[in-house]
C-alpha cells in the first residue's frame, strides 16, 4: 500500500510539473483527487488494510492529498500569472500614438443663415418656436383663411397622408398654433422644414425651409411691420440696404406685401445678380387678417398683428452667392466647408 502511494505521489507530481496549461491541471486533479481518482480509490480500499495499520495508511493518504492539492494550486497560480503576462504583452497600448481625428463635418449654409436670422430677431425680443412638419389641413389651410376650394391651395400642392393630414406647405400654421397657445403680446419666429410637390431644379425642391414671423399686440400697425423688416434687412445684408414693399395677396394677411431689398452686390444700380433691377425679393408679409385672428381665439377689435414668411434657402443662396439650390442638398463637404 505504501509503495502504491509513493508511486501515485511521484507520478502525480511529475504530471503537475509538466502540465503547462490550466486545463491539464484540472484533468490531473480529476485523475487523482476526483471521485473516481486514484487516490480516492486507495482510500476506498482502506478496508482491506489490517485494522491496526489503518490510521497510519489513512494519514499517509491524507498527506499525499494535501501535498497534491498544494502543488496543483501553486502550478495554477504560476500558469495564470504567465497567461496574464502574455496577454498584457499582446494587448499593449501605445499611448504615445497620435489619436484618430474625428471628422466633425461643417455647419450647413442653411444653418449659418438660420442662426443669423434667429440672432437678429432674438435681439428684437422674439422667441423661437416650432411646429410639426406633419400637419392638419386645418392649420395649414383652413385656419389661415384658405378654404377647401381656394385657388391658393393649388399653388401649394403637397403630399397628403390622409384627407385631413398633410406635410405642411408653409410654416404659417405655426402662427395659428401659437395664437391658440399663447396670449398676446406675442413675438415669435418659427423656422422649419416645409414640403411641396415641386420638381427639383436650381430654385425648387420638394422639401425646403421657411422662417415664419408673427407679432400680435395692441396697436400693432403696418409701420411696425415696415420698421421691423427694414431693420432686419440692414442687419442681415448690410447698413445701406433699403426695403421696398410691393402690394401682393396672401389669404391670411390684409393688406399683404412682398418685400424686396436693394441688391447687396450692386447697391441697387442693377447687375447680373439682381437681373438688372437693383432689387431682390426676400419675403412675403402683411397685417394678420381679422378672420385669422378670430378663428384662433384672438379678438381683432382688441389686438392686431403682422406676419411674415421667408424661404431660408433663398436667404442662404443670396447671402453666400450660391447659384444653384441643389448644391445645398448634396452634402458635399468640399462645398459646405466654404461657408
Ligand atoms: N406662407 C407664405 C408662403 O409660403 C409666405 C408668407 C406670406 C408668410 C405672408 C406670412 C405672410 O406670414 O404674412 O408663400
Would you spell out the secondary-structure blueprint of this structure?
Blueprint: H1 2-18, H2 22-33, H3 38-44, H4 54-90, H5 109-123, E1 127-128, E2 134-136, H6 137-140, H7 152-155, E3 165-167, H8 173-181, E4 186-195, E5 207-217, H9 222-237, E6 243-250, E7 253-262, E8 279-288, H10 290-295, E9 304-311, H11 312-319, H12 333-336
Account of the protein in words:
The protein has two domains: 2-90; 109-336, BirA Bifunctional Protein, domain 2, CATH 3.30.930.10. The protein is an alpha+beta fold. α1 runs antiparallel to α2 (22-33). The N and C termini lie far apart (93 Å). The chain is elongated. It has helices at 2-18, 22-33, 38-44, 54-90, 109-123, 137-140, 152-155, 173-181, 222-237, 290-295, 312-319, 333-336; strands at residues 127-128, 134-136, 165-167, 186-195, 207-217, 243-250, 253-262, 279-288, 304-311. It contains twelve helices and nine strands. The protein has a seven-stranded mixed β-sheet with strand order 1-4-5-9-8-7-6, sandwiched between helices. Strands 2-3 form a two-stranded antiparallel ribbon. Residues 170, 172, 212, 250, 253, 284-286, 307-309 line the site of 3,4-dihydroxyphenylalanine. The site of 3,4-dihydroxyphenylalanine has 11 residues, from β8 and β9.
